[in-house]
Amino acid sequence: MVQIPCQNCGKMYPEEWSWYSCNKCDYRICQSCISKHKGKYGSGFKCSQCTFGQMKRK
Ligand SMILES: [Zn+2]
Ligand SMILES: [Zn+2]
What is the share, in percent, of the chain residues with pLDDT greater than 90? Predict the structure, then answer.
């Protein structure tokens, strides 16, 4: 099974996991990080890494 790292916490999860990813950049985080990640551009369902991106459940 392929495992990929959460780009916020760095934990490895299966590729088939419930990821949230940005619709503008490729920032991808795990479910537990959706309430924790924050950055220059926002937090929660607003992508923290780019100006207009929204985090969508994959
Ligand atoms: Zn995470
Ligand atoms: Zn983004």
Answer: 97
